[in-house]
Design a protein that fits this description.
- This protein has one domain.
- Helix content is about 25%, strand content about 40%.
- The protein is built from two helices and six strands; from the N terminus they run E-E-E-E-H-E-E-H.
- The protein has a six-stranded antiparallel sheet.
- A hairpin with a 2-residue loop joins strand 5 and strand 6.
- The protein starts with 6 loop residues before the first strand and ends with a helix.
């Protein structure tokens, strides 16, 4: 099952692919990742974002990542149960971006 739905609020998925753990651009220990997916979305006002979701072997791995993660420009991250998600955007409408992350977080938290 895909982590990223076709639409999230005003955002429409433009592409989706499984991401080999060895090619992940984020500093996540490979031993803690079961699976990774990458999705590109297009949104309001020509907004674009890329979201990467890492399915983790344990919830504790997500806690550890969230505590050690270093913030960077135009990027947000969150941990939801067994998932750690990194969202990087370009020209994103802030309320639409907040809706995207809140909805995705809720979806992943409810996932079992």
């Amino acid at each position: 099952m895909d982590v990223f739905p076709e639409t999230i609020g005003p955002w429409k998925r433009a592409s989706l692919r499984d991401l080999p753990i060895s090619e992940a651009p984020d500093p996540i220990p490979q031993s803690t990742v079961r699976r990774a997916q990458l999705a590109d979305y297009e949104g309001p006002r020509n907004g674009k974002l890329q979201a990467r979701a890492y399915e983790l072997s344990t919830p504790q791995a997500g806690v550890d990542l969230a505590q050690r993660w270093r913030p960077s420009a135009d990027t947000v991250f969150f941990w939801a149960t067994n998932y750690f998600v990194v969202v990087k955007w370009e020209e994103a409408d802030r309320p639409a971006l907040q809706q995207f992350t809140a909805t995705l977080s809720k979806n992943l938290t409810q996932r079992r």
